[in-house]
Write a structure and sequence with these properties.
Elements lengths: L4 H27 L5 H28 L3 H9 L7 H10 L20 H10 L2 H22 L6
Helix pairs in contact: 1-2, 1-4, 2-3, 2-6
């Protein structure tokens, strides 16, 4: 399903935009008198996908060797409702999503960096990578839930 960085990034960019719709709809529903639990649920879904999208953006940025500005823009685009879609389109059109997962070391000297070797090791073991990312996201999500919602209660 995610045989390319472009495919994974696109799916998460769209999912992040969809969860904005869920959150905004929940906020509107609460303003119309529906129980506040809808915002808790919608916000929870959005928060989890937001963290997943950010982790994916970082992974794809490292794999595709994006300049730090492009990687930062990809992550920050999730803060603005629906901005992940035009960001994904721009990254695609500018060729930054072209190529496959870098599973083998090439002649490029950048492939000899410690984090590139580590990334290749994990990319060759996608289930290990998926579990590691999922555990990290769940841990961060739980910590953020304990801290409380943005802006307080």
């Amino acid at each position: 399903m995610f045989r390319s960085p472009a495919r994974l990034f696109r799916v998460l960019a769209i999912a992040e935009a969809i969860t904005w719709t869920i959150l905004i709809s929940a906020l509107i529903a609460r303003a119309m008198g529906v129980s506040g639990i809808v915002v808790t649920v919608g916000g929870g879904i959005h928060g989890f996908i937001f963290l997943t999208y950010a982790a994916t953006a970082i992974l794809v940025a490292l794999n595709q060797r994006w300049h730090i500005g492009a990687g930062a823009l990809a992550v920050v685009s999730a803060v603005v409702p629906y901005a992940t879609i035009p960001t994904e389109i721009w990254l695609h059109r500018s060729g930054r999503l072209n190529g496959s997962w870098r599973l083998e070391e090439s002649d490029d000297r950048r492939d000899r960096r410690w984090y590139d070797r580590l990334m290749r090791w994990f990319l060759k073991r996608p289930w290990v990578l998926a579990v590691l990312i999922a555990v990290a996201i769940v841990a961060l999500y739980v910590i953020l839930l304990m801290v409380g919602p943005p802006g307080g209660k």
